[in-house]
Design brief:
CATH class of the domain at 278-531: Alpha Beta
Structural class: alpha+beta
Organism: Phyllostomus discolor
Helix content: 25-40%
Subcellular location: Cytoplasm
InterPro entries: cDENN_dom, dDENN_dom, DENN_C, DENN_Domain_GEFs, TPR_DENND3, Tripartite_DENN, WD40/YVTN_repeat-like_dom_sf, WD40_repeat_CS
CATH topology of the domain at 278-531: Rossmann fold
Keywords: Cytoplasm, Guanine-nucleotide releasing factor, Phosphoprotein, Repeat, WD repeat
GO cellular component, one term: cytoplasmic vesicle
Number of helices: 34
């Protein structure tokens, strides 16, 4: 059964793709000594290398007997096992010599993995040529990167060594040959070079170098005819080593005498790093490193040079790691042999490496190349021409230089205080730990460089329509950085980077960007009003006149290319110049501790390599992995997942498909990030009928099989194109106008854009022409640019809060308090006086009593004047605003109305939205330039209109109880309903940062989106955690680091509270998960009860994530569960069932207390009064039963003006009921607070504009309510 399956299943390869022996051809060795004697010992001949033997997995199959595999895989009669049907070939018997006939690759006999070019391989193994030596030379290693026609890369490590030419027999294909034509004994003075090349899919440069070093020790001690056997055994060992899964688990293999470590990648998005990342920092000064990075970021044609073949690959690979998560997508050939030099004439971008001896030749023959000399640390250009390579932005570059200078790059200095290690492997482990620490620091500072350079890209993205406003982004860059960004924005690398940003990929860049954001920037990211520089940032901003002129000239013309930008002196115009040294904002690297790593030692491989030995090796692996798993702490899911992955992989290689699927099913629940979905799908599809049926009989595998098979393997790829913003060229209706405005980044809210559409189309056909849109866009951007360049005198800064921003400045006007400009922030109005710059306070919006527009007589004219009266001043402020008067009148009244609403509803977003309205008014008036412009702008005075038309006061009880409101849908195009709320208390955990120990509010929105707030400040902690794509029904905190989320798609998702990611899924339910309950009590085991709408209840062990028991309630409709008194209380629509072991008590809705058909919506247990409280659909009463007599008639608590109930919670001795009711004749979301002892409604709170959908308690001090889609906000209420 397993054999049949493996014939159709392409098993994952181990570390080895192939191993090749390369050396001189047989014929060239004939007469070698005679030629040497004729030419002299100093002039031995150069030979053309060729592939002598190829060894590729698998090296054993089930048909192999004890003698199988004795023949070597030669090129003439290669015997390579493949997944295809085995061909019957005549075997070459040992000792019979080579068959006659021409040599060369035989397509029928040799199947080369991944399309490795065997014709080019000899040149790459001997890139400097194959020369016979008159004396032995030291072994040497170099590294290769091989790329196939599809762009897939494999990695090679080549070890060269020399063997003497003996008098009896010569090494060739592992066989002795006694022929009279071989050289006499004097030929022992000739030493012939050979190379062993290991090709792997993974860049294990250090590990494979160590492995080859161990192999060479054995090759030097063996007979010539034993060489092939040793190489084949070596290759077979490597082929059996699985590739470690992403994460902290590294694999260790004993190669004798070395313990070789194969490190894993940090996460699925990261590359494998098995090299010393500080090598470029030893070869180049930091300024030169930046120049090379600039060449790569702008995708130049770059050639590295060195006298060391090994350094070519290692240094270029380090630079590519520096770019992560950006990826070099062009040609990459770090080692070019002498015959391949014409590759550097390619016209497209590439990254190549040549020996230093070819430097002059390449420099003269090719134009437009960047030449990087590793040995001298220089960066120049070919033909002495300056290549157009711009500099990395100055501030980011200076900070990078200072951080590099603070690194300790010399191990001897860092470890000088330690004693000498007397154990070889212990000394290597110490050095590896030091290198791991240094690699982490270097990765951190290069990633910091990229974040500093590209952080503000996200401010110019529109995620809904996948638009990048490149022109607006460029306008925000300093003139000296324009050339760099213009070139980078045109590269494939940056285009892929944009795709990842628009897809909201949480890679290393996004994680560092988020973790290093200031609190102010974090808040700005969700504000609905446009961004402006805050007062706190103004003192540090030093705008230059040239930069201001640059902004003024280009900001209003987004699509025109004929604007002349003031030229600045080019900084580092030549590649030979260094960037100036300067003081940066941070001169040291943060002490970055590498993540803790663990090792798993792979068992020994036994020889001869027959199927029994291989199966014994696999069995040893499974036993060791099982033993390691049994020793793990229950909460160590990180390591457990890696062990599941490896054991499943090994069992797959064994042919134990069912056991492998069980391990993968456990992995699916433990860490979804490393789940090999494609491999599991192919495993299931390859199963024979009986095996498949056996798997389907197991409930735990049935769901896994359905999951992997239902995933669309050939689904149409989602549109991930990146569009660039362009001004429209045709007339637009409302829908098209909404899209265009959202793409521009001005406003995202659909309702606000609809009001803007009405304003721009007043008195005309409901279409907006391109010219009007262009004028509006230009006015908006000009105002934005002016605000960015605004500076305030110190006297004004001293009176303003650091969080305030200047949103609008008037022209210079005459007022009754002096001449100057009126400034508007989100809090106040003030006057910037002229002459001697000063600050005159006008009013805060909270203190306004009256704002009116009138005229005053000045000589013979009537001048429009704005009059502002405040509550605490008798004097009325007057400003002769002239033509600006009507606009300022509208804007001040809108801000006043917004502030009033914000104070009444405890919702600061009213002020933010009022600011948006004000700035839109300004842009509309500037764009229309017509007598009706003010009337058009009045269409945007939304809050002022609400205040005048619907002056509904917030009820006193509501105002006193309401503490604050927050909006989880901020930044979305439309509000989203709040489906579930969960409060988790703060705690100190060594695994968390200090900021992460704050209490959190988890908010479930539509389509599996969870927003996390810091409950100590009510600011957004995590913008979005994705948990599936369906509606979320329930949440619960299981232990301190897990939040469980039940979904409509029948899956329980587990969010890690440390990483804020969802990598675990529980798929045992078959219907929508509707309830989650954590077992209380300090002595209770860690268990979670979950229920689904079909009546299934599962009990989970939190540590193992396994179901410990399950039971089924008949009838279905199960909507909620609760634990009390050792019993499980279940709400099943028309009944409440109490389950205690095998005993069940049921409370049914019958004619005794209801007049029409209904069902239970929610229930709460009040142990202090021994009561059960419940609400029913369509009723405005709350029903109360005594727990001792559930069969008796219930008591009732009437909810006045209630039309529907959705949720209910118990807080201390109160019952809070949320639903919909009438307030002042209008339907509103209402909350009823009931005293549980007296059974009376204490408070009736008008909570939201839409229904109250969910309630949760925060430590008994606050209650949080979430509203429906019309409002989509969360209210925070004080509990008395």
């Amino acid at each position: 059964m397993a054999e049949a399956a493996s014939q159709h299943l392409a098993l994952p390869s181990g570390l080895l793709e192939l191993c090749a022996l390369v050396g001189p051809p047989r014929d060239s060795l004939r007469g070698l000594e005679q030629a040497a004697q004729r030419r002299g010992s100093q002039s031995l001949p150069c030979l053309d290398p060729e592939v002598l033997s190829v060894f590729a997995p698998p090296f054993v199959s089930r048909e192999d007997g004890p003698l199988a595999g004795a023949g070597c895989g030669t090129l003439s009669k290669a015997k390579r096992r493949s997944f295809r049907k085995k061909r019957e070939k005549a075997k070459v018997e040992p000792g019979k010599g080579l068959p006659e006939g021409p040599r060369g690759p035989d397509a029928e006999d040799v199947s080369v993995p991944n399309g490795v070019d065997l014709l080019a391989l000899p040149q790459l193994c001997f890139p400097g040529g194959l020369s016979v030596a008159s004396e032995p030379k030291e072994d040497c290693v170099h590294f290769l990167v091989l790329t196939d026609v599809c762009g897939n890369r494999t990695h090679g490590v080549v070890a060269q060594y020399y063997r003497p030419l003996h008098d009896e027999h010569c090494f060739y294909n592992g066989r002795p040959h006694w022929e009279s034509s071989w050289p006499p004994a004097s030929a022992a003075g000739c030493f012939v070079p050979f190379a062993v090349c290991v090709v792997s899919s993974f860049p294990y440069y250090n590990a494979l170098r160590d492995c080859l070093s161990c192999l060479l020790v054995h090759l030097k001690l063996c007979k010539d005819f034993e060489v092939d056997k040793h190489i084949k055994d070596f290759a077979a060992k490597l082929s059996l080593i699985p590739s470690p899964p992403p994460g902290p688990l590294h694999l260790v293999f004993n190669m004798k005498p070395l313990q070789v470590v194969f490190p894993s990648r940090a996460d699925p998005e990261s590359p494998v790093i098995d090299l010393d990342l500080h090598l470029p920092l030893l070869c180049f000064r930091p300024e030169k490193v930046l120049q090379v990075l600039a060449c790569l970021l702008t995708e130049q044609r770059v050639v590295f040079f060195s006298a060391s073949w090994a350094l070519l690959t290692l240094v270029t690979e380090c630079f590519l790691v520096y770019l992560h998560p950006l990826r070099w997508q062009h040609t990459f050939v770090p080692v070019l042999s002498g015959q391949m030099l014409d590759f550097v004439m390619a016209p497209t971008s590439f990254l190549m490496g040549c020996h230093l001896r070819h430097f002059e030749e390449v420099s003269k023959e090719a134009d437009g190349l960047v030449l990087v000399n590793i040995d001298t640390g220089s960066v120049t250009s070919s033909n002495d021409e300056d290549v157009d390579v711009p500099d990395i932005p100055l501030l980011a570059a200076q900070t990078f230089v200072q951080r590099v200078q603070s690194l300790q790059l010399h191990r001897e200095l860092d470890l000088a205080h330690l004693g000498a290690s007397t154990d070889l492997n212990a000394g290597r482990a110490r050095r590896r730990a030091w290198q791991q620490q240094l690699n982490s620091q270097i990765q951190r500072l290069t990633l910091q460089l990229l974040v500093s350079v590209f952080r503000e890209v996200k401010n110019h993205l529109n995620y809904e329509h996948r638009v990048f406003n490149s022109e607006e982004f460029l306008k925000t860059r300093a003139p000296s950085d324009q050339r760099f960004y213009k070139q980078v924005l045109e590269t494939y690398m940056f285009h892929s980077f944009l795709k990842a940003r628009l897809s909201r990929r949480m890679d290393a860049f996004a994680e560092l960007d988020l973790s290093t954001q200031s609190e102010e920037d974090r808040i700005d990211g969700v504000l609905v009003s446009p961004r402006r520089p805050t007062v706190g940032k103004m003192p540090s901003r030093k705008p230059s006149p040239l930069r201001a002129a640059h902004r003024r000239m280009v900001v209003s013309m987004p699509n025109l290319q004929d604007i002349a930008v003031p030229e600045l002196p080019p900084r580092n115009a030549s590649l030979r110049d260094d960037i100036p040294r300067g003081r940066g904002s941070s001169s040291s690297v943060a002490d970055v501790s590498p993540r803790p790593t663990y090792t798993f030692k792979i068992p020994e491989v036994h020889f001869p390599l027959v199927s029994q030995c291989v199966q014994a090796y696999y069995s040893d692996c499974v036993d060791l992995l099982s033993k390691a798993m049994s020793c793990l702490a229950p909460d160590n899911s990180v390591l457990l997942a890696r062990y599941f992955y490896l054991r499943g992989l090994v069992r797959l290689m064994q042919g134990e498909l069912l056991d492998a699927l069980l391990d993968f099913q456990s992995l699916y629940k433990t860490d979804l990030r490393i789940f090999p979905a494609d491999l599991v799908r192919r495993t299931v599809q390859s199963m024979a009928g009986p095996t498949r049926a056996q798997a389907e009989c197991r409930p735990e595998l049935r769901r896994l099989i359905s999951e992997v098979l239902e995933q669309p393997g050939e689904a149409p790829k989602a549109d991930d194109r990146v569009k660039h913003f362009e001004l429209p060229s045709k007339h637009m209706g409302l829908d098209e106008f909404v899209r265009r405005v959202q793409e521009s980044g001005i406003v995202r809210d659909v309702n606000t854009i609809s009001r803007l559409f009405e304003a721009l189309t007043v008195g005309q056909q409901k279409l907006i022409d391109p010219e009007t849109f262009k004028d509006f866009y230009t006015c908006w951007k000009e105002t934005e640019a002016e605000a960015q360049e605004a500076s305030l005198p110190a006297s004004a800064l001293a009176h303003l809060d650091k969080s305030e921003c200047v949103f609008k400045l008037s022209r210079s006007v005459k007022t009754n308090r002096g001449v100057g400009k009126i400034a508007m922030t989100q809090k106040r109005l003030f006057l910037l006086t002229e002459g001697k710059p000063g600050y005159v306070h006008i009013a805060t919006f909270r203190d306004l009593e009256e704002v009116r527009s009138s005229t005053v007589a000045v000589l013979f004219l009537r001048v429009p004047t704005l009059k502002i009266k405040t509550a605490f001043k008798k004097e009325v402020f007057e400003a002769n605003l002239k033509s600006e008067c009507d606009l300022w009148h509208l804007m001040v009244k809108e801000m006043w109305a917004g502030k009033t609403l914000a104070d009444d509803h405890k919702d600061p977003q009213y002020v933010q939205q009022a600011l948006t309205h004000v700035l839109l008014m300004d842009a509309v008036v500037g764009a229309l330039q017509s007598p009706g412009a003010i009337y058009a702008a009045s269409k945007l005075a939304h809050f002022d209109k609400m205040k005048s038309e619907m002056p509904t006061a917030v009820p006193k009880t509501t105002a006193e109880t309401l503490r604050h409101k927050i909006n989880p849908s901020a930044g979305e195009t439309v509000p989203q309903a709040v489906d579930v709320l969960l409060y988790t208390p703060g705690h100190l955990d060594p695994a968390e940062k200090a900021g992460d120990a704050h209490p959190k509010l988890w908010c479930a929105l539509h389509q599996g989106r969870v927003v996390v707030f810091d409950a100590s400040s009510w600011t957004v902690h995590q913008h979005c955690v994705r948990v599936g794509a369906s509606k979320l029904n329930c949440m619960a905190m299981a232990e301190q680091n897990q939040v469980w989320v039940g979904s409509e798609d029948s899956v329980i998702y587990i969010i890690n509270t440390h990483s804020m990611s969802c990598n675990k899924q529980l798929t045992d339910h078959r219907a929508s998960v509707t309830g989650l309950v954590v077992q209380d009590g300090p002595g209770a085991p860690s268990q979670v009860y979950s229920c689904s709408v079909d009546g299934t209840i599962l009990v989970w062990n939190v540590g193992t994530l396994r179901v410990t028991s399950r039971f089924q309630l008949s009838g279905g409709g199960l909507s909620a569960i609760s634990l009390h008194g050792g019993c499980l209380w279940c709400c099943t629509g028309n009944s409440i069932v109490v389950v205690s072991g095998c005993l069940r008590q049921e409370l049914k809705i019958d004619g005794g207390f209801q007049e029409r058909s209904t069902c239970f919506v929610a229930f709460q247990l009040v142990p202090e009064q021994a009561q059960l409280w419940a609400v029913c659909s369509g009723y405005d009463d709350v029903y109360v039963w005594g727990l001792e007599d559930l069969a008796g008639p219930p008591g009732r608590v009437h909810l006045p003006d209630c039309s529907e109930v959705h949720c209910m919670i118990r807080v201390k001795r109160q019952i809070w009921v949320g639903g919909t009711g009438l307030s002042q004749g209008r339907p509103k979301g209402k909350i009823y607070v009931i005293d549980a002892e007296r059974r009376t409604v204490e408070k009736e709170l008008v909570a939201h504009a839409d229904a109250v959908r969910t309630l949760c308690s925060a430590e008994g001090r606050y209650v949080l309510s979430g509203s429906g889609q019309e409002e989509g906000k969360i209210a925070i209420w004080t509990v008395e």
